[in-house]
Recover the amino acids of this structure.
């Protein structure tokens, strides 16, 4: 379950390299329905052979300078403005989110971030790094991204999480 405001947007990212941006208000009244507890739900994105949904973000349209951070297995990632993604109805085909290659690896996560956030990345071998989102510049959708973390050949990123910057957390505690 997720609680959403009327104009919040959903962003789904799928493997290998696509994403979809959809908004609840794009679903017409005739498409809305109530479903029982055993219902299958509604489709978010059309999947083709080999595709799978990796992550989902609910982006608050009221937050200024909100960007999407995509992180890949080999330590590469990028920030992209929400405006780079066109709005689509449910079960759309999606658009290219990041160019996945052997260099950057498969997508492992997607986060809605601003300059006020840090991210924490963890590898399969337990290496953890924290970095400021403000150090990453925004770039276009169809790019491979930049190195966020050095990852050894026998390792790979498995998770990324958004956290509040330490300075902001200190002020909240006061």
């Amino acid at each position: 379950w997720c609680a959403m405001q009327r104009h919040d947007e959903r962003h789904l990212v799928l493997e290998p390299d696509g994403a979809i941006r959809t908004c609840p208000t794009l679903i017409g009244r005739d498409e809305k329905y109530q479903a029982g507890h055993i219902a299958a739900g509604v489709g978010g994105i059309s999947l083709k052979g080999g595709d799978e949904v990796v992550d989902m973000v609910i982006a608050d349209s009221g937050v200024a300078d909100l960007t999407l951070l995509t992180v890949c297995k080999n330590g590469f990632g990028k920030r992209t403005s929400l405006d780079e993604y066109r709005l689509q109805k449910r079960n759309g085909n999606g658009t290219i989110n990041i160019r996945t290659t052997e260099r950057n690896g498969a997508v492992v996560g997607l986060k809605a971030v601003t300059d006020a956030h840090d991210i924490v990345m963890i590898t399969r071998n337990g290496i953890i790094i924290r970095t400021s989102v403000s150090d990453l510049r925004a770039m276009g959708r169809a790019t491979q991204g930049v190195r966020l973390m050095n990852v050894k050949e026998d390792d790979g990123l498995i998770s990324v999480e958004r956290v509040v910057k330490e300075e902001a957390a200190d002020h909240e505690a006061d």
